[in-house]
Known about the structure:
- 37% of the residues lie in helices and 18% in strands.
- It has helices at residues 2-19, 38-46, 57-66, 84-87, 100-112, 139-146, 171-183, 205-210, 220-223, and strands at 28-31, 51-54, 72-75, 93-97, 117-122, 152-158, 187-188, 191-192, 196-198, 215-218.
- The strands form 3 sheets. The protein has a 6-stranded parallel beta sheet with strand order 2-3-4-5-6-9.
- It is globular.
Amino acid sequence: MVLENYRKVRGEIDDVCLKYGRKPEDVLLLPVSKTKPVEMIRELYDAGVRDFGENYVQELRSKHEELPKDIRWHMIGHLQRNKVKYIAPFVHLIHSVDTVELAATIDKEAAKCGRTIPILIEVNAGGEESKFGLTVADTPAFLGEIRSFKNIEIRGFMTSAPYVEDPETIRFVFRDLYKLSLDTTLKNNNNDLGNILSMGMSNDYHVAIEEGATIVRIGTDIFGARDYSH
Length: 230
Ligand SMILES: *Cc1c(COP(=O)(O)O)cnc(C)c1O
């Protein structure tokens, strides 16, 4: 069932890409497996899927321990500084960096592990008050402040749009993030890195891809609705 859902979403992504002149291989479908059992992840793993997104450090850690070590784990949820050390040795990409202090902690923990950790800057492009993330206006100065950290690699931007009935009404959120990424060169350790744009969830990924997403984070449409009641 999960694999069927994955293939259906992948097919829709490919269709949108072809329609809008984008290459399907330029859009990564990231299954978001938070709150879901490892058996569901294994079903996708056995079909060749290697990238998975999680929101909670404890859960990410225990799933990493239980599952094959070649899975590329993406941390997409809000991250507390005191928990960075638990994921620093293995995390593939942290999508949710929005303070200098958090970037500094990731840099320090990465150095301890003798590695560089790729990160995305979380931008609250929709300007929602309840959301984490920098404003678009604050982002260039923020990049300037964290650029000198040697053990993080700034790879691009992430945003979560507000949930709305009609995703057309939030197209501007994705468009603003795309514009920001065009206006920003992410030079880091003298490497000019390609910009990643992590945007689009089950409800709005079609629009996000039309506006330039390179990673879409899909939970519900692959794994079904989440149950937080127990
Ligand atoms: C849960 C979550 C997702 C997946 O959301 P769905 O609507 O279930 O596809 C994507 N991104 C973030 C940051 C999330 O927390």
